[in-house]
Amino acid sequence: MAEARTPTQIEADIVRRRQELAVTLDEIGVRLHPKTIMDDAKARAAAAVDRTAGRAYVAANRAVSDVRAQLVSEDGAPRLERIVPVALVGVVVVGLLTLRSRRRR
């Protein structure tokens, strides 16, 4: 059976619970404050951008490594049989873009 509590114990319990409730209400107020909500949204957006930028960097790095592996041998020597056709295609594309831009003028 539970012991009977004194009025002093009951008052102390009420004071303690009021303090706990005040802390809880303060926390809710901070969480629901518009600035807090905006800061959280900004942090989530920045994290998403960081993840996307990181993935893009990894993908670009992988693509550059793949291209480099195609154009340079394992000992570091350029593979002219692959570089020359790529360079010619680049020159042709630049030439066509130049002609196109001159015709528009």
Account of the protein in words:
The protein has about 100 residues and is mostly helical. It has helices at about 5-30, 35-70, 80-105. The protein is built from 3 helices and no strands. The chain is elongated and about 95 Å long. About 0% of the residues are buried.
What are the low-pLDDT stretches, counting only 5+ consecutive residues below 50? none
Structural class: mainly alpha
Helix content: over 70%
The helix-strand sequence is HHH
Radius of gyration, taken over Cα atoms and rounded to an integer in Å: 34 Å
Strand content: under 5%
Notable characteristics:
single chain, 105 residues, mainly alpha, 85% helix, 0% strand, elongated
In a nutshell, what does this entry contain?
The protein is mainly alpha-helical. Helices cover 85% and strands 0% of the residues.
Element layout with pairings:
Layout: H1 7-32, H2 34-71, H3 80-104
